[in-house]
């Protein structure tokens, strides 16, 4: 827990971390960037959920779904720019720990739209938290506690 506090506060003198690199690359503080990420990610999820609900509107449903779902994805993906700059994000999205989430995020397939929407929500969330130090470990631990 102490290491997490040191890393999040930027006082980890052992080695330069991803967090230290991210802090150096922007003028926003870590807390501001996390708040911006959460706000944009929540708004993106809301747009995507609204688009999924509008899928069943007669005649215009598919168009409304496409517009709101796409807007939600753009907003959600854009939210990660608060955590990492755009260039670092592009470089790191194909690392082995994020490759599957990136493929699922970018993969488009006709049919089974709702199933892929749900998978895409999980992939986007998993990809996004990979930019927050120790967040994946915390989510894994929380899920294991909830399931046991």
Salient structural properties:
mainly alpha; 70% helix
Radius of gyration: 17 Å
Strand composition percent: under 5%
The whole-number mean of residue pLDDT values reads: 79
By secondary-structure content and strand pairing, the structural class works out as mainly alpha
> Could you state the order of secondary-structure elements as H and E?
HHHHHHHH
Unreliable parts: none
Shape: globular
Cα distance, first to last residue? Answer: 23 Å
Number of strands: 0
Helix proportion: over 70%
Number of helices: 8
For the largest beta-sheet, the strand count, sense and barrel status come to: none
In short:
The protein has 148 residues and is mostly helical.
Describe this structure in words.
The protein is an all-alpha fold and 148 residues long. Helix content is 70%, strand content 0%. The protein has helices spanning 2-9, 18-25, 30-53, 61-79, 86-92, 99-106, 113-129, 135-147. Helix 3 (30-53) runs antiparallel to helix 4 (61-79) and helix 6 (99-106) packs antiparallel against helix 7 (113-129). The longest helix has 24 residues, at 30-53.
């Amino acid at each position: 827990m102490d290491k997490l506090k040191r890393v999040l506060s930027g006082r980890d003198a052992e080695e330069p971390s991803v967090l230290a690199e991210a802090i150096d690359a922007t003028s926003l503080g870590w807390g501001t960037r996390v708040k911006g990420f959460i706000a944009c990610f929540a708004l993106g999820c809301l747009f995507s959920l609204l688009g999924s609900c509008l899928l069943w509107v007669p005649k215009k449903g598919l168009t409304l779904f496409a517009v709101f779902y796409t807007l939600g994805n753009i907003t959600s993906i854009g939210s990660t720019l608060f955590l990492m700059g755009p260039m670092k994000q592009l470089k790191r999205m194909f690392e082995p720990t994020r490759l599957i989430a990136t493929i699922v995020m970018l993969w488009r397939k006709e049919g089974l739209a709702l199933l892929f929407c749900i998978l895409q929500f999980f992939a986007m969330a998993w990809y996004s938290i990979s930019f927050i130090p120790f967040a994946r470990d915390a989510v894994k631990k929380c899920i294991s506690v909830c399931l046991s």
